[in-house]
Amino acid sequence: MKTTTRAGRMCLVLDDKVIDVEGASSGRFPADPLAVFERWTEFAEWGRAATDGPAASEGRAGSPSPKPRQIFAIGLNYREHAREAGLALPESPATFTKFATSLTGPDTQLRLPSEFVDWEAELVVVIGRRAEKTAAEDAWLHVAGLTVGQDFSERVVQAAGPVPQFSLGKSFPGFAPTGPVLLTADEFADPDDLAIECLVNGETVQKARTSSMVFSVAELIARLSAVCPLLPGDLIFTGTPSGVGHSRSPQRYLRAGDEVVTRIEGIGQLRQICVAG
Q: Could you list the residue ranges forming a coiled coil in this record (predicted)?
C-alpha cells in the first residue's frame, strides 16, 4: 500500500491515481493524516482493498506524515560514514531530534542560512502503532511504512558550543524534506535492504544499501521504545551513508542553484533546489 498527502490531506496512491482518503472512505477515515495513523491497522486493511475514489486535490505531494509528535534522528549509523568522520562505531544509537518546523515535502526550495549546509540522504521510518518497550522481533508490526528523507545540516551551528548542537544545526526551515510517498513493508522484497543515493547537480555523492546500517530498523525501534513511547505518525531518520560534504577533502557544501536529489529504491525521490538565505 502506498500513501501520500495533498494540501495536508491523507491520500491513497492507486497505480497512477491519487485518491482522497476521506472521500473514498465516505468519511470512515478523516483527512487528517495523524488521525489516520492513530487507526493505522484498520486503515491499512481498508486501503489494501480500495480500488477507486475521488481524485485528490491538485498540487505537489507533501510529507507523508506532516505533523509528527516526535522526530528522531540517528547519527553514525553506517560504518563507512563513521569511518569518514573519524569516529568509532556507536555502542548504542546516537540519537538527536529534528524539530518539527524543519519538516517539509519532497519537492521544495532549500533556503541556505549559511555557506556550510551539507546533505545527508536517509531512509525514514513512519510509526503506525504505538511502540513501548517493544522487542526487535516485533518491531516491524509497529511500522506504518518507509519513505525518503534528507537530514540537511548546517555544520557550524551543529558543532558550536561546549557540546555539539545537532538538533539546532539540523532544524533550519526546510531541513527535513520527506516523501514523496510512504510504502508499507510488504511492498518490498526485503525492507531491510534498499538502495539509497544522493546526487548533487547530477553527480552521485552518496550511494549505499540500507542493509549496511549499524542498527537496523527493528533494533532502532527496540532501543528507542525502551526509553520513550513511539507514537503513531512519529518519524525516525535512520542515518546517512558515507559521502557527506563535510568529510571531503576539500570540504564541499551546498550553494545557491544546486540541485539535490535523494533516492531510495522502490519509494521514489526528493528534489531540492538551493536558494540564497
A: none
